[in-house]
Amino acid sequence: MKKMNLTLKCILVMSVIAIVSVALLAVANTFLVPAKSSGLNDKVIARLQTFCPADSYNDLTDTYADEIEKFNSENGDNYSKINGVYSAVGGDNDGNNIIEADGPGFQSGIITMLIAFNGETISGIGNRTYDTKNTYWKDHVEPNWDNVVNYFVGKSDLGSASGKDLNTGATLSSNGILKAVRLAIDFNKNINGNVQKPEPEEVTDSDILEKLKAMTNSETFIKYPYKVNQQVNCVYVDNTGSVIIDALGAEGSFGGCNLLVMVDASSKTVLKVTPIRMDYQVYGEYDASGLDDPDVLTNHFKGKNISDIDAMEKYLSPATGATESSTGLKNCIKNALKNIDGFLSSEWGSEVQTNE
Amino acid sequence: MLLSIVSIVIAGLITNNIVLVQSWGMCPYLGVSKKTNSAVGMGLAVTFVITLSSIICWLLYNYMLVPLKLEYLQTIVFILIIAVLVQIIDIVLKKFSPSLYNALGVYLALITTNCAVLSTANNSINSDFITMLVTAITTGLGFLLALILMAGIREKSELSKTPKIFQGFSIALIIAAIMAMAFQGFSGFNIDVGSYKLMMMGGALWL
Amino acid sequence: MSNKMLLNKRIIKKTALGGILENPVFVLVLGMCPTIKASTNITDAFALGIATTFVLICSNVIISLFRKFIPDQVRLPAYIVIIATFVTIVQLFLASLLPDLNQSIGPIVAMIVVNCIVLGRAESFASKNSVLLTLIDCTSMGIGFTLSLLLMGAIRQGLIALNFSIFSTTAGGFLVLGLLMALFNFIMMTVEKRKMQKSRAGLNEEVE
Questions:
Q1: A146-166 pLDDT per residue, tens
Q2: So what's the ipTM on this one?
Q3: What would the DSSP string read from start to end of A252-281?
Q4: Is A18 within the bounds of a domain?
C-alpha cells in the first residue's frame, strides 16, 4: 500500500511541476516575442553593397511608417509584409529605393528580402535573413541564386509568375520570395507617388484582355478597383454587364492561386473559370498541374454555389492527393462568390447594375 | 560531401575542439583527467551520450516541437532527454560492466551536467541529419582526445614538484591553457608577439 | 533561548559569507564553463552573472519551499525541470528585449541549466534548509559568482585592450583563471597561517 502511495505521489508531483512549468512558459512565450533584427546594421549594409552599391544608405522606415502600416494592413499578414525602406546615397544608384519585405518560408519561417528599385524597375535583389531551420534555402536557393537574380532584375511587374519560374527546386521558398517581391513592387509604387485614388479604367493588359475575351466574347472590359484583402484583387465587367471577379485563394503551402471567375450575380453561381496563377507544386504523385486549365476548372465549378462547392470531393481530378491545391482552388472560387454582393452594393456596383 | 565531412572531423577533433577551443565541458574535464584509464572510459561514455542525445533531440525538435510550435520548450525537453539517457546508461553499466561503472563513480551522473552534451544538442538543430551526426560523433571524440592528452600530462606532473598554491586545479588550468593554444594554433590563429613572450617567461619560471 | 538566537545568527552570517569563503568559482570549482566563456569583457560577465543569480535564487527558493513535497526518487528530474523553466524564461526575456546581448551570451545562458552551481546548491542546500536561509545562500553565491566573473572580465578586457590578443581566446581564459586560483589559494593560505599564529599566541598567553 505504502509503495503504491509513493509511486503515485512521484507521478503526481512530476505532473504538477511539468504542467505548471509548461503553462508558465507558454504565457511567457506569448508575451516575450523574439525581437527581429531590423533597420540598417553593418550586416545589412554589407549585403546592400553587393547588389545596390552606394556611398551610404538612409533608413527611411520611420518617414514612411504610416504608409507601411496602411499597406501592411491592406495587403499583408503575419508572414508577408513590408518591413522597411532604405535609400541609396551617392554613386550610380543615388536616390534608388530599397524595400525590405517579408515572405513566408519553410516550416512557418519568414524570408526577408531586400529589393532595390530604379524607379519602378527592380535593379537588384538580396536576402536579409532566412530562417535558420531552412536547409532548403541553403541547399537549393543559395546555389541557384544567380537564377533568382536574373529572373527579377529588370522587371517591374511579376504578372502571373509562380515559384517554379525561379528554377531553384525549392518552390516553397521561391513562392515566399515572390510574395515578398510582389509586396515590394506594389509598395514602391505607393511611395513613388504613383498611386492615386484608384478609378475604374478600361482594361489594356493584353494577357488579361485575352483571357477575358475568351470568357465572354466581348471586346471591351472595365476594371473596377474593388479590393477585398486576400480575397478579391479587382472586378472586370464587360459591356453586357457580365461580372468577372479576379479572386485569390490560399490553402497551406501549395494552394495559393489567382483565378478569373465569371459569376452569375442573381443565382450566385459560377459560370466560367480561367486561371491566372496557381502556386501548386508537382511533388511525387501530388500532381495538380492538370488543374491549371480553364476547361478543366470550368467543368468542375460551373453552376455551383458556395454550398455546392463545400460538398465537392477532397481533391479535384485529374489531381490525386493534391488536397491543398484543390482546397485552395475551392477557396478562391468561394471568395469570388462571397464577394459578388459586396461588389454590387459598392459605389461601382450600382454602375454595373444600371447597365444591365 | 566527403570534403565537408573531412572538414567537420578536423574541426571537431582539433581546430574547434569542444573542450580546448570552445571551452564546453570544463567541470568533468578537470575532474576526470587525473588518470588515463578513467579518462578513456569517461571520454567514450561522453561520446556515446553526445551522439545519442543529439540524434534524439534533433528528431524530437524537428518532428515534434516545431510542428506543434512548442520551440520554447527546447531547454526543458533537451535536458530531460540527456538526464534520462544518462540514467539508462547508469543502469546498463551497473549491470554489464561494473568495473567501468566503479571507475567512473560519481562522474557518470555528472555527464548530465556536462555542458558539452547540451551544447552539441542545441547546435544540432541547425544542421541536416548527416552533418549533425558527424558533428556529434567527432565532438565526443574530440572530448576524448583532450581528456587523454590532459591525463597523460597530469599523471607526469603529479611526480614533479609543484608549488603549493598551484596544486590541484590551478596547474591543471595552466596546462589546459598551453594545450588550448596548440589546438587553436592549427586553425591559423595569430598570437601576437607580446603574448608569446609572456608564455615563454611563465613556462621557464615553472620549469 | 538566547543560545538558539546566537546559533541562528552565526548560521546566517556563515551562509551570507558563503559567496566569498566558499566562492563557487575559486573554491568549489563549479560553473567553469560560463566563467571561461563569458569573461572576455565586463558587460558579458555582468549579464551572465545576473542571469545565473536570477535562476539560482528563483529555482532554489521554489525547491526549498516545496522540499517536503518532492519525493526523493524524483528529486533530480523535478529540480531539473524547475531550473530549466527559469532558464527558459531568461532566454525568452533576452531574445525579446535584449537581442544584442543575446547575440553574445545567448548560447551561454542556455547552459545555466547545467551549471553545477545551480543544481549543486539545490541538491546540497535548498533541499535541506528553510526558505530564508536558502534565499541568503543563493544571493550570496550568486553575488560571489558575479563578482568572480567581473574580476576575470575586467582582467581579460584590460589585457585585450593592451593588445595581448591571446586573452580573448579560450587559452587565455584558462590561463587567467588558473593564475587567479593560485592567487586565491595564496590569500587563503596566508589568512589561515595568520589565524594559526594568532591562536598559538593566544594559547601561549594562556599557558604563561
A1: 888 888 888 888 877 776 677
A2: 0.83
A3: TTT--EEEEEEEETTTTEEEEEEEEEE---
A4: no
